[in-house]
UniProtKB/TrEMBL annotation:
SUPFAM superfamilies per the UniProt record, alphabetical: HIT/MYND zinc finger-like
Name under which the protein is recorded: MYND-type domain-containing protein
Keywords from the UniProt entry: Metal-binding, Zinc, Zinc-finger
Entry's Gene Ontology molecular function annotations: zinc ion binding
PROSITE patterns registered for this protein in UniProt: ZF_MYND_1, ZF_MYND_2
UniProt cross-references to InterPro entries, sorted A to Z: Znf_MYND
Domain annotation MYND-type: ranges: 9-53
Length: 233
């Protein structure tokens, strides 16, 4: 599926019709997918667009490589978002054939697949292959716990992709991760208590409201890529 922006500027999200028109959209000359209403928007968005600035290939899908603890530590940064790296996946990649659908994001309208060499292939090399964000993404809607293999084995660096083959961005997967962490905190189970009826939170409306607020919080902090939230993830 193309990452073309449905007649909206990739930076400010203003469209080409009605009161939101800012000017004719111009396509990125390199990838021919991202569209911008002005040179200023294109320049501001370049740090975000650059990792995905490749011509559209219907045989490939933009996914995310989620680094394990060991690989993340080698980056020498405390920025947790650095764990998420863009990756251009062939549609024959194991994430689409062997990956597991993350049930909590799926119930919220976000069809996320996850592939772990540690869980699905049993590859357990030496090192810190712990991957807490991956375990959070894989929690079950019944009890907010991940399946036992995800708890007992070290998942390692995982591959993430949308089942519908829409492009997966660092900003969107970070938001889904933060959502699952919020869900775990809210879960009303005997061991940890909780503050909300867990299953009642698992719906697209609640997820999109959280997403809108999270994007706004990050935008206020000045983080690039978290622009005004217009379209559902």
């Amino acid at each position: 599926m193309s990452s073309k922006s449905k007649d909206r500027c990739a930076k400010c999200h203003f469209g080409v019709d009605g009161v939101y028109r800012k000017g004719p959209l111009k396509v990125c000359s390199k990838c021919k997918t991202a569209e911008y209403c002005s040179k200023e928007c294109q320049t501001e968005h370049w740090p975000i667009h650059r990792p995905m600035c490749k011509p559209h290939d219907p045989q490939k899908t933009w996914g995310i490589q989620l680094l394990c603890k060991d690989e993340f530590q080698h980056l020498n940064t405390k920025d947790e978002s650095a764990r998420f790296k863009h990756i251009h996946l062939p549609n024959s990649h194991p994430v689409f054939t062997m990956g597991e659908l993350c049930p909590v994001p799926a119930l919220c309208g976000f069809p996320l697949l996850i592939f772990s060499p540690g869980v699905q292939l049993g590859q357990q090399p030496t090192g810190e292959w712990e991957n807490q964000p991956a375990v959070y993404l894989r929690i079950e809607p019944e009890d907010a716990f991940a399946p036992m293999p995800w708890q007992m084995l070290e998942p390692g660096t995982c591959i993430l992709a949308r089942k519908d083959h829409k492009p997966l961005t660092r900003e969107s997967i970070e938001t889904v991760w933060k959502w699952t962490a919020k869900i775990i905190d809210a879960a009303d189970h005997p061991t940890y208590g909780g503050w909300a009826p867990f299953r009642g939170l698992l719906n697209p409306a609640t997820f999109q409201m959280f997403t809108r607020d999270y994007y706004e919080e990050q935008r206020v902090k000045g983080r690039k890529g978290f622009d005004a939230f217009w379209n559902p993830l």
